[in-house]
Amino acid sequence: xxxxxxxxxxxxxxxxxxxxxxxxxxxxxxxxxxxxxxxxxxxxxxxxxxxxxxxxxxxxxxxxxxxxxxxxxxxxxxxxxxxxxxxxxxxxxxxxxxxxxxxxxxxxxxxxxxxxxxxxxxxxxxxxxxxxxxxxxxxxxxxxxxxxxxxxxxxxxxxxxxxxxxxxxxxxxxxxxxxxxxxxxxxxxxxxxxxxxxxxxxxxxxxxxxxxxxxxxxxxxxxxxxxxxxxx
Amino acid sequence: xxxxxxxxxxxxxxxxxxxxxxxxxxxxxxxxxxxxxxxxxxxxxxxxxxxxxxxxxxxxxxxxxxxxxxxxxxxxxxxxxxxxxxxxxxxxxxxxxxxxxxxxxxxxxxxxxxxxxxxx
Lengths: 232, 120
Description:
The complex is a heterodimer of chains A (232) and B (120). By secondary structure, chain A is an alpha/beta fold. Helix content of chain A is 35%, strand content 28%. Chain A has nine helices and ten strands. Chain A has helices at 43-50, 70-75, 91-101, 107-116, 130-142, 160-173, 187-190, 211-218, 222-229; strands at residues 3-14, 17-28, 32-36, 58-63, 66-67, 76-79, 148-152, 179-183, 196-201, 204-210. Chain A has a six-stranded mixed beta sheet with strand order 6-7-8-3-9-10, with helices on both faces. In chain A, helix 4 (107-116) packs antiparallel against helix 5 (130-142). The radius of gyration of chain A is 18 Å and the shape is globular. The termini of chain A are far apart. The model of chain A has no long low-confidence stretch (mean pLDDT 91). With 120 residues, chain B is mostly helical. Helix content of chain B is 61%, strand content 7%. Chain B has helices spanning 11-24, 37-44, 48-60, 78-102, 107-119; strands at residues 64-67, 71-74. Chain B has a two-stranded antiparallel ribbon. Chain B is elongated and about 55 Å long. At the A-B interface, helix 6 and helix 8 of A face helix 2 and helix 3 of B.
């Protein structure tokens, strides 16, 4: 199997805080991976380094065999944990913007998903509720034909019915060669759609295993294991 | 809607079971073509790779077979499907008998109760 993401000895220190310490991580293509961990465990830092938004203090990161840069950014579709859209634009103009900006963006796919979720493409982004805005952002991110999708808390503000729809959409739309990394606290909701899970703790990888390995070894769900490992 | 899966057992095994039930109960008829891996995965809300593994297992056991370009089909061997039905039914009856004996019922009492319930 070829590794789409290969991280070696990755450390990130902010002033006096160590966010990631000596992380080694390999992620194969064609996998849906859950990045799990309590608040402050380093999930978003890891994601931002993969996306080239932060520089590592030390260590190496390869995406599809190349160092993070122009190429890696062109194959990664990233959903940040905050909105970055211009609220005065309509969804339609934002789609046009994405179509111009990303050669791999498929507007048909975006309009199809908007239609299924009954979202009017002519509404302005700032007029949307928090949940609808999140849906729109996820639709845009998933409408690219990327090799690596990185979704930081994609379903947190979305109602359960739409959550199911979104997960089904992710499953039925993504290219079997593509990998999806999902960072989330809603483990029970996504668990059955994941191949592997990565537990982060104090900036290190506490566990990297497949969902079914965990279930057959521990006799409990990943969600239950998480609650046990990170019990406060 | 997505399939009802237990949260504490491997997903793979549960998908295999679910598909076996679908074959036995005739949701998928002998010789019928199955939906694609991706559609099945979306229907079940499970990971496509896990669905693929479950289908491969069922294929290895002979309950389905794939034809290169045409897709994946349920076996036409009705004896085999019948045998699977008997096998799964037996497993459930064993489980039931165990629970009844935990309630302290004798074999005769169980039989009587079962036939009484079947008449109603």
